[in-house]
Request: fold
Amino acid sequence: MSNTRRQWIRNVSLATIGLAGAGKLEARNRIEDWWIDETESDWVRIGSNENPYGPSEITAREMAKAIKASNRYPREVSGSLRKALADKFGLSEDHVLTGAGSSELLGVVAAYAAIKPGNAVAAHPTFRLWFSAAERLGLTIKSVPCTTDKYHDLPAMKAAMNDDTRMVYIVNPHNPTGTVLGDAALRSFVSDASQKSVVLLDEAYTEYSDAKTLADMVAGNKNIVVAKTFSKIYGMAGARVGFVLAHPETIAKLSAYMPWANAGPSAVSLAGALAALTDEDFVKMTRRKTDETRAMVAASFRQMNIPMTQSSTSFLYYDCTALRQNLDERSEASRISGVRTFENNTPWRRTSIGTMDEMKKFIKVVEGCRA
Ligand SMILES: Cc1ncc(COP(=O)(O)O)c(C=O)c1O
Reply:
C-alpha cells in the first residue's frame, strides 16, 4: 500500500475519533475499508483487541458442523444460545437479545434511547463506535473527560446529566484505558443514573479482569442494559456474535429495531458461540496468556519509563511522551498494526496484547523509538 494511502487511512481514523469530528464521518468513508493494512497476512495485528488464540478447537469444530444447517433460519440454535446465556447469568431467556456483534446492539440501544432528542453522556476517551448512529438520531454526545489516571469520572458524569439525558454509557473495564471501576461505586452510580435515563453498560472485557458483571441488576430495572460479546475472551471477533441483557420489556422494545428479534448472527456463528460457552479451559488459557504477556510488556514499559494505566484487559494504554521517534510510523514500517489513538493531540496510545512473540517484536520497535 502506498504511503499516501496509509496517511489517508490514518487521517480517516483520526477523523472518526476526533471530538470535533464527531458525527461528521461521511458515508463515503464508512464503506471504505480503513483496516486494509491489517488484512495483509504478514502484519502483526495488535490494533483491534482481537484474541490471538481463538476460536477454540471445540468452537471451530461445532462451527464447521453447523455449515450444513445454513439453508435454514437458525431458530433452534438461536433459542439454545439464549437459554444458555440466560442460565449463565441467572436470568430467563426473555432477558437476552443477540446481535451481529455487540457493536450492532450498542447502536440499537442508542436508537432506542434517542426516542426523544437529547444527550448521551459518555467518558472521553471511550469506545465510540455507536456515536455516529446516536448523533444522526438526534442525540448530542456529552463527553466527560476521564480522571487523570484515566478512570471514568463518575461524579462528573453524574453532574453532566440533565433532564435531556437519554443515555449514559459506561465501559467496564474501560476501552481504551483498561481501567476497572470499583463494584460498589459503579453499582451506586448505575442505580442513580438509571432513575433518569437508560444506562448502557458495556462489559466487552469483563472476563479478562476481576470486575463483576452487573447482569444481576437488569431484572429489576428497565433502564439498565448490559452489553457483552463473543469477540474478545472467546476469540470470535470474525463470527460476529454479541448480546445484551435487559428487562424483558426493554428487550421487546429493543428488538423492534431489528427485522426480527435476534436476527443478526448466522447459524454457524450461533453454534460456535454455544460451544464456546462450554469451553472454560480456553477462557482460562486466554486470560492466563494475556496476563503473562501484558505483564511482560508492562515490565518493559516501566524499564523504559513509559507511563501506563492500570490495565486488567487485553490491551495497554500508555503515554509516548518519552519516545523521541514516531512510534506510529516506526510500527507501521515494521509491519505492526497496533498503535491506536483515541484522543486528538495526545501522546497516549492503545495497543492490544498479542502473543508473546508478537509483543517482543513490538517492544523492540518501542525501544528503537527512544534513540
Ligand atoms: C468496549 C467495546 N465494546 C464493544 C465492542 C464491539 O465488539 P463486537 O462488535 O465485536 O462484539 C468492542 C470491540 O472492540 C469494544 O472494545
Summary: The chain has 13 helices and eleven strands.
